[in-house]
Design goal:
The structure is a single chain. The chain is an alpha/beta fold. The protein has a single domain, classed as TIM Barrel. The protein is built from 10 helices and 15 strands. Strands 1-14-13-12-11-2-3-4-5-6-7 form an 11-stranded mixed sheet, with helices on one face. Strand 3, helix 2 and strand 4 form a beta-alpha-beta unit. The longest helix has 18 residues. The protein starts with 5 loop residues before the first strand and ends in a 10-residue tail after the last helix. About 30% of the residues are buried. It binds iron/sulfur cluster (SF4) (2 copies). One iron/sulfur cluster binds next to loops.
Length: about 325
């Protein structure tokens, strides 16, 4: 194997039984490609060969084999399941059940399939970090009672004790209705609402850079969290910062291939075949562009970096004439 680092083996499997421990490793697993929606802003448009049919490698391994592959690393994982639409994965509820016996999961979903109710009945909420349910209003409105069914499903998961979040994307055509929509969802009992900054192209403009001053003020007034604020302000270049992607966090494709992250294609082997090795420690980010800023914001040692930058600025200021102090950024 090309990478240096520690190789894991079956000998490291934890023999512990019982509920999953606190996650030590993270994976963003793109487990399938097919989706029943056709959102016009979907990042897959134009690059997805398998939009109608599923990827041929999807479902190749049984749920128990997949869970065992994660167990064999000897670590507890938080597995972020994304697609495609993950609930369309063959026998998705069994997969979730197998994984949550020792690990934690989170899911990016459009929450449109009936097996969500089986999931709610069979999976322990404490093993599910979050269910990120994207609203995709235009697609809901194409379907009979689409929005009502989405709200009912959200409320059901909420009642069962899951950390389910309605993800409202600030797609430019939706901005005029953003505030009313949020008020309406809250009045219907939805407690977890997450306003997500749109990233992508709309009418030949690239967002979030193209948001106007007024649009930015509107988005900020909707109460977006810190990571979204950073994305809106374009603070998403992590080049040179220490990042745990490659040592404690990975991207996994449908076939089980591990890479450092969504932006850096460096391979770490294959989780399903049991042949892989991980870096022993964090290393500097080598990409000028972090494809998934959520990974960069989470995996870089941002706090340490910010404290160090502040210290450096103060040190430089001490040696500069008064008129030039505060110019170093
Ligand atoms: S639901 Fe998600 S994966 Fe499916 S088309 Fe919409 S954005 Fe793409
Ligand atoms: S900062 Fe982003 S691009 Fe850089 S290594 Fe980390 S996850 Fe990858």
């Amino acid at each position: 194997m090309a990478n240096s680092g520690r190789e894991c083996s079956a000998a490291e499997i934890s023999k512990e039984k019982g509920p999953p421990r606190r996650p030590e490793f993270e994976a963003l697993w793109r487990l399938n490609q097919s989706c029943n929606y056709r959102c016009e802003y979907c990042f897959r448009s134009g690059v997805d060969e398998y939009r109608q049919a599923e990827h041929p490698e999807c479902g190749k391994y049984r749920p128990a084999q997949i869970a065992q592959a994660f167990d064999y690393t000897g670590k507890t994982w938080r597995i972020h399941m994304t697609g495609g639409e993950p609930f369309l994965y063959p026998d998705f509820v069994s997969l979730a059940k197998a994984l949550t016996a020792r690990h934690h999961i989170s899911i990016n979903t459009n929450l449109s399939t009936s097996n969500v109710y089986d999931f709610a009945d069979q999976i322990t909420p404490s093993s599910v970090h979050s269910i990120n349910a994207s609203l995709h209003l235009a697609e809901r409105q194409k379907r009979k009672d689409g929005l009502e069914r989405f709200i009912q499903c959200m409320l059901h998961l909420q009642k069962k004790g899951f950390n389910v979040r309605l993800m409202y994307i600030t797609y430019p055509p939706l901005l005029s209705r953003l505030k009313n929509d949020l008020t309406s969802f809250r009045s219907q009992g939805i407690s977890g609402i997450y306003v997500k900054v749109f990233r992508g192209r709309y009418e030949n403009e690239l967002y979030p850079a193209a948001f106007t001053k007024d649009q930015r003020a509107l988005i900020l007034s909707a109460g977006i969290p810190g990571d979204e604020r950073a994305i809106l302000q374009g603070e998403t270049n992590f080049f040179g910062r220490q990042c745990v992607a490659g040592s404690k966090a990975f991207d996994i494709d449908i076939s089980g291939n591990l890479t450092r992250c969504s932006a850096i294609n460096k391979g770490y082997g294959n989780i399903f075949t049991g042949r892989y090795c991980f870096d022993e420690q964090a290393s500097p980010c080598s990409s000028l562009f972090c494809n998934c800023p959520y990974q960069g914001l989470k995996f870089t040692q941002r706090k340490t970096y910010e404290v160090l930058s502040k210290l450096m600025r103060r040190t430089f200021d001490a040696f500069l004439p008064k008129s030039k102090q505060g110019t170093l950024r």
